[in-house]
Amino acid sequence: MNASNDTENDLKLRLILVAEKLFADHGVEAVSLRQINTAAGSKNTSAIHYHFGSKDAVIQAIFDLRKAKIDEHRLHLLKQVDISSGTDYETVRLIVSGIVSPLADVVLPEGAEGRNYVRLLARIFCDPSFHFREDLVLGNLYLTGMRFARDHILDILTDIPEEILKERMRWISTHFVFALSNYAWEALRRQERPIHESQLFFETLIDYETAALVAPPSPRAKSLATGGI
Cβ(15)–Cβ(42) under 8 Å? Predict the structure, then answer.
């Protein structure tokens, strides 16, 4: 690969990273391609159009940069869970940890480079004007991991109606993103947390999401989920 190609690749990566931060800071709709180009320090005013062509393509490039490694790690962790040993709570907690850990690993360490990415995810999840396809936002590997986790949880928590468990899974799959995003925002505003505080944050987050899954449903909720009135 020659020097000119190296330069072009460096510029493309810089545009992606700058776009990721600007989108995370201000929201996708509030940032123009021209602003990204300028913030990246490109002298070529058409550089971002040349490399990407559209804002959708920039978003896709951000996901291509970040998601594969995170999603592969998630699926790997989930496949290590032995559902035949331990209590139901312990097994569900291991599954929840497998879901959350790959994203937490790129957010919690001091100076973690994935913080802009998780802040962007949180903006996307709560922005009703954001109309990207689900397969762009979540991706097949992510869906595979979540489906893998959901199927195991349904097999374990048989006393809770399936409809309730699926609803809870949808909630925790976005809640932990918001929790990690909030952590990332706090890190921007103040000094980094000590390591033990980051570890406590993670363990408490896993406890919280696990409790949300295993909590017994109210009689009314159980009745409604099973066709009652």
Answer: yes
Q: Which three-class secondary structure string do you get for 13-66?
A: HHHHHHHHHHHHHHCCCCCCHHHHHHHCCCCCCCHHHHHCCCHHHHHHHHHHHH
Domains in the chain: boundaries: 1-53, 67-225
Answer whether 1-53 and 67-225 agree in fold: no
Residue range 31-77, pLDDT digits in tens: 999 999 999 888 777 888 888 888 888 998 998 898 888 888 999 99
In the three-class reduction of DSSP (H, G, I as helix; E, B as strand; rest coil), residue 154 is classed as helix
**Which residues, other chains included, contact 224 with Cβ-Cβ below 8 Å and sequence gap of 6+?**
none
Look up the CATH architecture of domain 67-225: Orthogonal Bundle (1.10)
Euclidean distance between the first and final Cα of the chain, in Å? 68
Q: What share of the chain is helix, strand, coil (3-state, %, to 5)?
A: 70, 0, 30
User: Which CATH code for domain 1-53?
Assistant: 1.10.10
Predicted structure pTM score: 0.86
Burial of residue 63 (number of CB atoms within 10 Å: 0-12, 13-18, 19+)? buried
